[in-house]
Amino acid sequence: MRIKYNIRRSIELANFLIKLCRQEDMRNHIPHVANQECIYILANGPSLNQSLTDIINNKRYLTDCMMSMNFFTNDERYEIIKPKYHVISDPMFYDAPGQEDRVADFFVNINAKTTWPITLFVPYRFWKDKVWQGKFTNQNISLIPFHQVTPPYDCLFLNWIAQHGLIGVNFGSVLHHCIYVSLLSGYKEIFLYGADHTFFDGLCVNDNNQVCKKTTHFYDENPDVVPIFHTYTGVKTAYTMSHFLSEYAGIFKGHELLRRIASSFNAIIINVTPGSMIDAYERQV
């Protein structure tokens, strides 16, 4: 049985590397630049509002390295915090059906507001599109790509491959990418704010057997409970409960994998988000 297990893992590793070569490349594009031991990642959970108040009141943003994500650029506090790094990974930033206005605001704001040098980490397929790159007109913004081809969970030589920047941590949350690029950049203590991951709050099934959810981000006001859909097949499709639970199980499993990878970097991930549903990292609340 052990032989069959290792044969399977070897085949999966080969398939992963072939896919990486075909879709992206075999380079680590993320430089090791950390001149500080710790970095603070500002995730999108609703608790970030209070955390931002504390960070601003304590003026921590003046001394500590900050990484933001997604639509934080649309928030007025973006210009106060002045994050050193920003990460986007959602396909909507490349192709935005139904989100055109919000994504358009992102490009307007990041170009208009960014008066300091910032590194913007983006998926490799975004980065290689020169037309898409051309949407960034501010010389303060430097684009660096990360990989999105995800290895098997029990991938052979995972730690070695991860240390060389060749894996994608595309497990369903931009937070995964933030953590991984922080590790590759050389940070040894990674603190997570707004990493609520309370995906199951407001989850219900209405009388029409539609899976519904109240999605909350720190920038949302009075979110409604509405049916939820996905477009993985290229067509807008309603979630089933089994599909929803399977998908979000993958998100939490991705954090378990990142904890393992962080150990191989001699780094630690510390979750300082009150009420967070993530159980993979050390807590400090």
Average pLDDT rating: 92
Assign an overall shape.
globular
How many domains make up the 3D coordinates?
A: 1
Percent helix, as a range, is 25-40%
Percent strand: 15-25%
Class by SSE composition: alpha/beta
Flag low-confidence runs: none
Termini separation: 44 Å
Radius of gyration, whole Å? 19 Å
Q: Provide the succession of SSEs.
A: HEHEHEHEHHEHHEEEEEEHEE
Secondary structure tally: strands: 13
Largest sheet: 8 strands, parallel
Tell me the number of helical segments per DSSP (H or I, 4 or more residues long). Answer: 9
Q: How do the strands line up in the largest sheet?
A: 5-4-3-2-1-6-12-13
Secondary-structure topology with pairs:
Layout (H helix, E strand, L loop, with lengths): L1 H22 L14 E5 L5 H10 L7 E5 L8 H4 L3 E3 L12 H14 L4 E6 H4 L2 H4 L7 E6 L11 H6 L10 H12 L3 E5 L10 E2 L5 E4 L10 E3 L1 E2 L6 E2 L2 H24 L3 E4 L10 E2 L2
Parallel strand pairs: 1-2, 1-6, 2-3, 3-4, 4-5, 6-12, 12-13
Antiparallel strand pairs: 7-8, 8-9, 10-11
Helix pairs in contact: 8-9
